[in-house]
Design brief:
Layout: H1 4-11, H2 18-26, E1 29-33, E2 38-40, E3 48-62, E4 68-74, E5 79-80, H3 83-88, E6 95-108, H4 109-118, H5 121-146, H6 149-159, H7 169-176, H8 180-190
Antiparallel strand pairs: 1-6, 2-6, 3-4, 3-5, 3-6
Helix pairs in contact: 6-7, 7-8
Length: 191
């Protein structure tokens, strides 16, 4: 079934009855997007949370000089979104697009609010998800402020082992905060 990965991730944290699973799945929207297709654009309002079933997305900002700064990659099994836009229903500061053709499970905000009311276990699930995300973002911030580029690259490799050989070096460089030329030079020195 197309939602097996999603249910597996949820079941790792909370137990649901078959009726609760069926209700939850009835609230999800399925969407396919093509490689390089924009899913959320800066200035739009994020109206749903998104789980990646297949493919890969990237969450990023573009600075005033036109440089892309990747905050997160979202391979299968990952959630992605501009959380500030989603929570406050205000214009997004971030962009999301597909690195590869992707399949998504989308839960619109009103549907998620209804799920919380009807299935309290989901509040626990999303609290755990939020706590883990906050811890990960704090660690990423500390790493970006204090680690040299080679250590940030090693951390990237640990976090995204399936993406190391798949992503263009330009995207990896953007994620770790260096130029593609610097990353290429650094990798040649390590080899």
């Amino acid at each position: 079934m197309k939602y097996d990965l999603l249910l597996e991730k949820i079941s790792a944290q909370v137990k649901l009855s078959e009726e609760e699973k069926a209700f939850f799945l009835s609230r999800i929207q399925y969407k396919k997007i093509k490689r390089k297709q924009l899913y959320l654009q800066e200035g739009d309002v994020s109206r749903a949370i998104t789980f990646v079933l297949s493919g890969c997305l990237k969450l990023y900002s573009i600075d005033r000089n036109g440089f892309e700064h990747i905050l997160q990659f979202a391979p299968p099994g990952w959630w992605v979104g501009d959380m500030k836009s989603y929570i406050y229903q205000e214009p997004a500061l971030l962009n999301i697009d597909a690195i590869y053709d992707s399949e998504l499970a989308i839960i619109p905000k009103p549907e998620l609010d209804d799920i919380y009311t009807r299935i309290p276990a989901f509040e626990r699930f999303f609290r755990i998800l939020a706590e883990n995300a906050i811890a990960a973002y704090q660690q990423r911030l500390i790493n970006n402020l204090s680690l040299p580029a080679k250590d940030r690259y090693s951390t990237f490799c640990e976090l995204y082992p399936t993406l190391i050989m798949q992503l263009p070096q330009k995207m990896i460089a953007s994620y770790i905060g260096v130029t593609p030329e610097f990353l290429s030079k650094m990798l040649k020195q390590q080899a």
